[in-house]
Design the sequence.
């Protein structure tokens, strides 16, 4: 048994496979931009093969964290090869690969404390030390961590990369978020601690006030999107990419296929919302409970209405890549027409913005004074459309909302124009009352914008801040996009549903 030789062959084989994928990624880089290799819905598409020094808090007196920087060789090559191998053999996505890489980086902490740099030196002790460290640190997702560590240990054992088998044993079952048995007493405040605590009664009451009285159409887009988050109990990224043709209805039938009728002889209808599951991006239907149907229907219908202006612009840009608008490149455009696209309150602000970015007017009407009303029909300055377009095009986000790889080629599943919740850039800058809205930039509502509206992101005015709504103790209301999911699971738990029933629901 020669683990060093097996390691060399393992790395060489996976590197050769990876180099043939045309991902645009250099194997030797410590940070991989996986956007052309592993599609991900979020903004972060990076895989980091660096120490966890800046991402983990050490427990005093236990271990010494490694210095910032790249993982040492040959361990860094092993981690890269493991990431490629797991994707190739398991057909898993970005988030799963990133989690495996993170566990490898955790293992390196304990290798560093023993002066080790080769995976050949790994033993079961390293794996158990990671689990002990996370337990002492109060880490919550121990089950997921142990499951990922087990997969890594199985790779080491299968490829015979260590002097002795790791044979790491993962935690047998996931601990219930609330308890292992049925609850008979209410959940108290001490049990609602941590990042994933349940929303308070005051927070849910405050949200009800917000969603039933939107301040304007732009805010209502956000509120209706969050309505669907609550009605469906889905993940935030899944709700942000619900297709516009999502509403599904069908009659309820018995085993013989006969339509069931209610007491008034009216067919019983089952309603649901089509969405793309975050795992594997499969199209599914979330069937709604009867009490959720009016709430969800209002959200879908209003979002369709509120996004009618942005949708055709997005569709035109999708059909005309490399273009922003109908203006020809050499066409001379008056500033008052540009104001309709760039949303500045005054022509003077538009002139300043273009001048700072190196776009000069081709003609100036000196008989017109600035600043001028926005709704005027006479121009103070004229610009070449191509010059302005060249400035703005790099800021245009990719309209491919969702894609998957089929037979080695990317297939687009969803574009911006086909997404239910979309808006113009700048629509959610509520704190900046006079902020301009770029109607030339239609885009999708992001998870960050949802979390900002719910008060999770410091410095961003939330829907609660705008109305001066607070928790019972006077603190700021802060909800995460994942809390409605926990809130719904709590209702299931209190109703006595098993873990399997909750998962099916």
Sequence:
């Amino acid at each position: 048994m020669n683990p060093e030789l097996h390691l060399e062959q393992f790395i060489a084989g996976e590197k050769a496979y990876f180099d043939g994928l045309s991902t645009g990624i250099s194997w030797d880089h410590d940070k991989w931009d996986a956007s052309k290799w592993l599609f991900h819905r979020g903004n972060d598409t990076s895989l980091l093969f660096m120490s966890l020094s800046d991402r983990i808090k050490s427990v005093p007196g236990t271990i010494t964290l490694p210095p910032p920087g790249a993982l040492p060789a040959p361990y860094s090559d092993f981690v890269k090869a493991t990431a490629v191998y797991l994707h190739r053999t398991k057909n898993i996505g970005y988030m799963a690969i990133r989690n495996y890489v993170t566990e490898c980086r955790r293992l390196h902490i304990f290798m560093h404390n023993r002066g080790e740099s080769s995976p050949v030196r790994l033993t079961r002790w390293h794996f158990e030390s990671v689990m002990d460290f996370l337990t002492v640190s109060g880490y919550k997702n121990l089950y997921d961590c142990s499951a990922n560590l087990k997969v890594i240990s199985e790779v080491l054992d299968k490829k015979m990369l260590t002097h002795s088998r790791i044979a790491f044993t993962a935690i047998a079952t996931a601990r219930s978020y609330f308890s292992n048995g049925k609850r008979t007493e209410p959940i108290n405040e001490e049990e609602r601690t941590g990042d994933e605590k349940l929303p308070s009664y005051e927070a849910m009451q405050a949200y009800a006030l917000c969603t039933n009285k939107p301040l304007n159409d732009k805010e209502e887009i956000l509120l209706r999107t969050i309505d669907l988050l609550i009605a469906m109990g889905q993940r935030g990224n899944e709700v942000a990419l619900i297709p516009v043709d999502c509403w599904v209805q069908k009659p309820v039938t018995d085993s013989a296929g006969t339509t069931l009728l209610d007491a008034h002889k009216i067919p019983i209808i089952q309603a649901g919302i089509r969405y793309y599951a975050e795992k594997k991006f499969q199209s599914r239907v979330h069937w709604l409970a009867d009490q959720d149907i009016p709430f969800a229907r209002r959200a879908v219908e209003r979002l369709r209405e509120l996004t009618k202006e942005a949708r055709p612009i997005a569709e035109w840009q999708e059909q005309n890549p490399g273009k922003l608008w109908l203006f020809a490149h050499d066409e001379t455009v008056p500033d008052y027409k540009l104001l309709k696209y760039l949303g500045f309150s005054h022509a003077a602000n538009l002139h300043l913005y273009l001048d700072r970015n190196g776009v000069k007017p081709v003609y100036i009407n000196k008989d017109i004074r600035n600043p001028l009303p926005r709704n005027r029909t006479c121009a103070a300055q004229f610009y070449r459309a191509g010059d302005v377009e060249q400035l703005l095009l790099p800021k245009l986000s990719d309209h491919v909302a969702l894609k998957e790889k089929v037979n080695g080629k990317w297939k687009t599943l969803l574009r911006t124009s086909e997404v239910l919740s979309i808006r113009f850039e700048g629509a959610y800058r509520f704190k900046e009352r006079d902020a301009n809205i770029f109607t030339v930039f239609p885009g999708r509502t992001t998870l960050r914008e949802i979390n900002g509206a719910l008060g999770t992101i410091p410095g961003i005015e939330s829907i609660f801040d705008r109305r001066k709504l607070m928790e019972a103790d006077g603190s700021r209301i802060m909800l995460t996009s994942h809390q409605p999911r926990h809130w719904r699971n709590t209702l299931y738990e209190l109703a006595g549903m098993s873990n399997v029933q909750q998962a099916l629901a």
